[in-house]
Amino acid sequence: MSLAPTIDIGPFLSQKSKLWKNDGIRSLMVLEDNPGIISLLSGRPNSSTFPFQSITLKLKPTLAGLPSATEGADPLTLTIENEELNEALQYGMTPGVPRLLDWLANFQTHVHKRVLDGSWQVHMGSGSQELSADIPISYWSMRDLGEPWVFLATLPCTLIEVNTDSQGLSPAKLETILSRWDRTHPGKPYPKALYTIPSGSNPTGASIPEVRKIEVLKLAKKYNFLVLEDDAYAFLYYGPEGQQARSYFALEVEVNAEKGRVVRFDSFSKVVSSGMRLGYITAAPGICNAVGLITTNTNLHTPTVTQIMAYKLLAGWGPDGFLAHCAGVAVFYRSQRDMFERVARKHLSGLAEWTTPVAGMFLYIKLLVHASNPDADCWELISTKAVAKGILAVAGRAFMPLRGPTPFARISFSIVEEDEADEACRRLREVILEARAEAEAAVRTTE
Ligand SMILES: Cc1ncc(COP(=O)(O)O)c(C=O)c1O
């Protein structure tokens, strides 16, 4: 067991999070299973009045099945019935269904090689986006750090932008901001958190290499901030084998000889189902408890039905079965990427540039809207002209807290078929050529 100390989370918690109080019911619910306890506690509806008899889930026959299905059971069928059904249909515990939490804690140990030593725990959310919006550190304080292209949930916080390139977040740029902090922000406290999407970033598609993560972690210790690792695309890695960077969560003890500085967000959306709305954080107990207080006071808990569906699937698969499934999903997205790049090269060569992603479902395309100005903003082109031609994509400005300008647009290749992708790129070519012709005509008029 590692003797590295756990950092004190208290100073990172926001004032707002300290206003939430335990509700006096949920704090006692943990005692209900104690022997001899008769609970008159909560206003749970009586399960006998619920109209459902059972839930049967059929897995796709293309899946290998559940290796640990009980003797004689169909390995492609999951059934939720009797007591388990009552539990699934009933109010549940705030942090999540306990056996799912245990499964996930073991899974995190398996994947990130972090000993389950009390320095971290898992807390469920109704999607990881809910958790990143609820995270109770000084996240709303307008002085936290993030990539210029950030995922939408963080936009209200007006982050301080840290430049990224094709390799993701730049530690050199981060260091520059922090080392000049006293000069650029006299009298202002240092940022308390860095928000980052390390794998197949949304929107840039970039994945940060391990050497950069190590530099970022060292800076986190030196300047005392938390790293919010939003890793929704971690399992959609399809780059060269053996080269996937370890997570910030995996690296923090080795790099900084401390625990608790990384708050990790995982999501089931991209590998199991997005409609089930299941995500989880892996973080210091102080963070998870503070998130739990917000959950208790807002939506009580993440839906139990989908948590139990997930548990049955995961328990049947085991950690390696789940990872094998994720690897199959990643192969699917790699072929989508290859297909999209093929048609993009056919129609957009000379009119757009991009870096090939090694994870995720996005191409971040730099549109060369003006022949003479490679950095011309593409907002107008994407949000008006492209829409008029029947193509929807997202201009990079939509993801930038400080609102750009930027020539980049996010293209999602996750669900599009090859013939549609081909037509979309053909139309985008027309839009770019028209915009270039207009720009050239405007230059001629002013000459
Ligand atoms: C980086 C990132 N985090 C989180 C999410 C949302 O995940 P969830 O569906 O678990 O809320 C997304 C969804 O697109 C995402 O791109």
Automatic annotation (TrEMBL):
Transmembrane segments: none
GO biological-process terms attached to the record: alpha-amino acid metabolic process
Keyword Disulfide bond: no
Gene3D superfamilies: Type I PLP-dependent aspartate aminotransferase-like (Major domain)
GO MF annotation terms: pyridoxal phosphate binding; transaminase activity
Keywords per UniProt: Aminotransferase, Pyridoxal phosphate, Transferase
Xref: Pfam families: Aminotran_1_2
Obligatory cofactor(s): pyridoxal 5'-phosphate
Protein family per UniProt: Belongs to the class-I pyridoxal-phosphate-dependent aminotransferase family.
Protein name: Pyridoxal phosphate-dependent transferase
